[in-house]
Amino acid sequence: MAETCSHLLADAARRGALSLTDEGRSRIAGFVLAQQHADGGFRGRSSASDRYYTFFAIRALKALDAPLPAAEIAAHLRGFRHDDGLDFVHLACLACASADVLPGERDEEVLARLETFRVADGGYAEKRGAAQSTAYGAFLAVQAYEAQAVPLPNRAALARSVESLAPNVTTVVAERAILLTSLGTTPPDSVGAALLDRAARRGGFRAAALAPIADLLSTATALCALRALGQPLDGVREPTLAFVHSLWHDRGGFRGHGVDLTPDCEYTYYALLSLGVLAPDDDGAEEPSAARHSLALHSRFREHSACMPGGRTCGEPGFSAQSDDRA
Q1: Which end of the chain is more exposed for a tag (fewer CB within 10 A), N or C?
Q2: In this predicted model, what pLDDT tens digit does every residue of 182-237 receive, in sequence order?
Q3: Contact 275/244 with Cβ under 8 angstroms?
Q4: Distance CA 102, CA 91 (A)
């Protein structure tokens, strides 16, 4: 039986957390918990809580095996179950987050509202009435149904809609590959090579062929897709590990890319996904030298900080990312 999207992601995040030192896990968990708002939800890059970031905070804390303030989160989420103003993305995040803190309570109403975003081609889109479905829409909908333990309606039609997509952005290429694999359809053989071609020479994956720098969203989705495809990561493991670690912020969270100064729960979760895919397999078949680097690696960067402007480490604010010179 094909691995579900949710299991693939949860396993990668868990492996990422296990690859860290106790101190690293503690600091990351501390950062995530510090983003909790007084209303029980979690904030993103503003002072208000948001279901979107709450979803990522929950997933990160679960991967880290950190204490989850489930009662406070559940009270917060219950207030949005009947909110007709939620868009597709927030509905899907609400379905996933609710399942994490309210186990056994199926949210049929939220799933029914997700179905109003179904497209005639069998897929999902972020806007009602869209002419064509999107990989992102399908990716969120599938996770929502998996989280709620409810069979996905018209699964075959969704698979056909995803298969018909012709993506070119890295995240969409990756989401499509993960979806097809989880839906029991084999992606084209060229997908793995196409994703690896987006790897930046200095580490990480770029959003598009001409993107100047790598980013953590593209990196996490590409790596998860490559794992789903069984694609070897030789040649990208070491630089990508260094790239992910360079985005670790002294506050304990991760930033999205080299010129991003603000860590948040979303990118922190993407970091755990990336580290998990890059970690060695349990059977020890892969070379562990790089993959077993922990967030103590940050101290390795500190050792060289004397030669950096202002004494900053390459994982701290103030550094401008250099463009990758691969076109």
Answers
A1: N
A2: 999 999 889 999 999 999 999 999 999 999 999 999 999 999 999 999 999 999 99
A3: yes
A4: 16
**Owner of token pair 């179905």:** 115
Amino acid at 326: R
- Report the alpha-carbon distance of residue 322 to residue 105 in Å, rounded: 48
Q: Please answer whether residues 259 and 322 qualify as being in contact, where contact means their C-beta atoms are separated by less than 8 angstroms.
A: no
φ and ψ of 184, to 5 deg: 85, 15
Chain-centroid distance, C-alpha 225: 11
Read off the DSSP letter of residue 165. Answer: -
Q: Which residue has the tokens 């990422």?
A: 16
Q: Sort strands 214-215 and 205-206 into parallel, antiparallel or unpaired.
A: antiparallel
**Closest by alpha carbon to 261, among 316, 306, 218?**
316
Q: Mind giving me the DSSP string for 23-44?
A: HHHHHHHHHHHHTB-TTSSBBS
Cβ-count burial 251-283 (b if 16+ within 10 Å, e if not): bbbbbbbbebeebbbbbbbbbbbbbbbbbbeee
First to last CA, the chain: 39
Six-digit token string for 262:
């603000």
Q: How far apart are CA 134 and CA 138, in angstroms?
A: 6
For the entire predicted model, the pTM comes to 0.88
29-85 per-position pLDDT tens digit: 999 999 999 999 999 999 999 999 999 999 999 999 999 999 999 999 988 877 778
- The neighbour count for residue 228, using CB atoms within 10 Å, is 24
Cα angle 158, 172, 219; round to 5: 135
